[in-house]
Amino acid sequence: MAKVEQNDIDNVKAALELYARMKLYVQELEEHSSKTALEGNQNYHRFSRITQAIEQAISELKNSSIKQIMEYRYIKGIPHKVAAYHFSHCHSVSTFDRKVRRGIRIIATDLGSVLKEEAINASSLH
After folding, report:
1. By the 8 A CB rule, do 38 and 29 touch?
2. Which one of 5, 8, 49, 101 has the fewest CB atoms closer than 10 angstroms to its CB?
3. How far is the C-alpha of 97 from the C-alpha of 103, rounded, in Å?
4. How many helices (H) and strands (E) does the chain have?
């Protein structure tokens, strides 16, 4: 795996944690705003690009158990404790945590450049 910088990992973690809120924001705007209003909304475009990049990066994960965990935890927006319990039938909590960290590192190799292009960092997403 390519070397990933810690700030890319931190930025991906922040984006993943906020994925559900960004996705809801995008969906709400799409449902209740005109095309003209959407065109001028920078946050809409920014969040839309980030959520699409996250969805694509997770869908391209080759390891099926990491992919399932990342989809459940971040795409569905399930809290860590609940997600860890959900997978406890096949993974210990420490294995679950390792798979999440591994998924984040893999995604960071793909999304690091996208987040840099969007001038996204962990502090700008909160």
Report:
1. yes
2. 5
3. 10
4. 7, 0
